Amino acid sequence: MSKIRKVKTSTKKLESPFRNYWSVKNQIIFGAGIIVTMIGFILMNQYPWDNPLSMTYSAIVLLFAYAVIFPVAIFYKKKQNAEK
Q1: Residues 58, 62, 67, 69: is their CA dihedral positive or negative?
Q2: What gap in Å lies between CA 49 and CA 41, rounded to an integer?
C-alpha cells in the first residue's frame, strides 16, 4: 500500500497588481494630470460664457490633460538595465 502524503499548503497574500507597476513617478504624473484637469475646469467656469478663455483655452487644456498626461501616467514604465 502507498503511504499517505501530507500536502503542505502555504497561504500567499495576494499582492496588488498596481504595487509592481505604479511607481512614485507614475503617481506624480497622475497628480499633475488631476491638477491640469482642475485648471481646465476652472478656466471653463470663467464669465461671461462666450469669452475665448472659457471657450477655447479651457478645451485645449482639458484635451492636453486627457489625451497626453493621463496616458503617460498610465503607460510610463521605468526602463530596465540591459545587464539584468
Answers
A1: positive
A2: 13
Question: Cα(34)–Cα(68) distance, rounded to whole angstroms?
Answer: 12
Domain boundaries, the chain: 30-75
Query: Cell 499517505 appears where?
Result: 4
- pTM for this prediction: 0.69
Render pLDDT for 3-24 as a digit per residue (tens, 0 to 9).
Answer: 777 777 777 777 776 666 778 8
Q: Which residues contact 66 (CB under 8 A, 6 or more apart)?
A: 37
Q: CA nearest 74: which of 61, 63, 65, 82? A: 65
Q: Which residues, 6+ apart, have CB-to-CB distance to 76 below 8 Å?
A: 25, 26, 29
* C-beta of residue 58 within 8 angstroms of C-beta of residue 41: yes
Q: Which three cell numbers stand for residue 10?
A: 502555504
Residue 65 neighbours by CB distance under 10 Å: 20
